[in-house]
Amino acid sequence: MSVQRSTVLFAWLLLAPALLYVTVIVAYPLVQTFILSFTDASLKRTTEWVGTDNYERIFNATFATVIGRTFLWTFFSVVLKMGIGIFGAAMLNAAVPGRALFRLLTMPPWIVPMAIGIFMWGWMYNGQFGMISGLLQNFGITDGPVAFLAQGRTAFWATVVTDVWIGVPLVTLYMLAAMQSVPQDLYEAAWTDGAGRFYRFRRITLPLIVPAIITMSMLSLIATFNSFDIIWILTRGGPSGTTTTMIIDTYSTAIGSKRYGEGAARAVMICLFLSVFCFAYFRLVSRLSGGMKR
């Protein structure tokens, strides 16, 4: 065997575990879901091919509202997480006394098991004995109890706040690592020229951490778009569907109503949306990389 052929064979052997994982864990279930979306699969023993009926059925006014609500929920959650995370990282990166303690205090929302944290927020949102409602009444802001999870508008924002609380620590730590990778001599040169703290942050820090911001935004977008636990534990998509996102609608259709074919079609739609996001992300990263090389 030639040296070149043995090198290629060795490379394929190294790639084999990853290829096996992608084929068995990712590709096969994805293909099966796509095939299932063209059937009327349910609890009945026989399954018939229905073509695009499942897709035609979900493209109605209700599903369009669910799509719009999903995009709004994802947009506000990601924007708030990124904004608070970048601001928090900038504060933690500053040379202030007790910086190590402040960094440690950012971890609890991420360390606490997600279900426990969500249940905690559910208790705080309770109108009768919740802490938030009690504080609003004590300060005279409201005249009576406020049941945040029982009203559509407040329930929507309550789930957003909970998602932001859970997601901010990861964004903060990621942005902090990106900021610490910025060469210190750039700050020293700017400080020597009389540049203020805000000017240095705007002209040095932000431009150099743009790739990290884009990467973290994309990861956060995918995780938020597919977020199930927060909404399901707090509201189960209610009240009256005001917090129903695409992932909640897919679960309710496939598992709750046992209409597996329609649920698979909804899952395929989610996959398509996220594929578009990923494609846009890679195009943006490639453009940024090309600009930096030039």
Detailed description of the structure:
This protein has one domain: MetI-like (MetI-like fold). 75% of the residues lie in helices and 0% in strands. It has 14 helices and no strands. The longest helix is centred in the N-terminal third of the chain and has 34 residues, at 3-36. It is flat, with a radius of gyration of 24 Å. The two termini are 43 Å apart. The mean pLDDT is 87.
3D shape: flat
Count the DSSP helices: 14
> Helical amount among residues, as a percent range?
over 70%
Termini distance?
Answer: 43 Å
Calculate the mean pLDDT score and round it. 87
Radius of gyration over all CA atoms, rounded: 24 Å
CATH architecture: Orthogonal Bundle
Biggest sheet overview: none
User: What is the top-level CATH class?
Assistant: Mainly Alpha
User: Which structural class do the helices and strands define?
Assistant: mainly alpha
Q: What is the tally of beta strands?
A: 0
The stretches of 5 or more residues where confidence is low (pLDDT under 50) are none
The overall number of domains is: 1
Classified in CATH, the superfamily is: MetI-like
What's the CATH topology name?
Answer: MetI-like fold
User: What percentage of the residues does DSSP assign to strands (E)?
Assistant: under 5%
Write down the secondary-structure element order: HHHHHHHHHHHHHH
